[in-house]
């Protein structure tokens, strides 16, 4: 899997070098990105990070569009400096002129949201529960207190959980 991704990154750089007739610094490439983003260009660290799940599920478009999108950020930074807008005219010029791709800011890949456990807390108000994340629930077990804004009572864990 990473071989195709690395090959596409290299191909994008070679295409830009042929277009601009100059050499560009190659970034490190990582497949350690989770969540909703398909890719991220860390300009100051010279690092491209890609989402392996979205890559697996959308490999053809991912290789064509997402990789070029992120490489274009790196090329734009080297060509035009750090004061440009992330998806501004310089980046768009590279997407259209170099890669002949639409300068889409966001992907349209289907995102599978993880189910999250919510811990239900109550106050003195009738029919009022507060779903806490696992992180907030852990803070309560370490002594943190939360209060109802309406009745000002301390929120207390009901012993119930639900999946969202």
TrEMBL record:
GO terms for biological process: proteolysis; response to stress. One of its GO terms (molecular function) is metallopeptidase activity. Residues 7-158 form the SprT-like domain. Signal peptide: none annotated. Pfam families: SprT-like. Keywords: Hydrolase, Metalloprotease, Protease. It comes from the Bacteria. The keyword Plastid does not apply. PANTHER family: PROTEIN SPRT. This is SprT family zinc-dependent metalloprotease. It comes from Pseudomonas cavernicola.
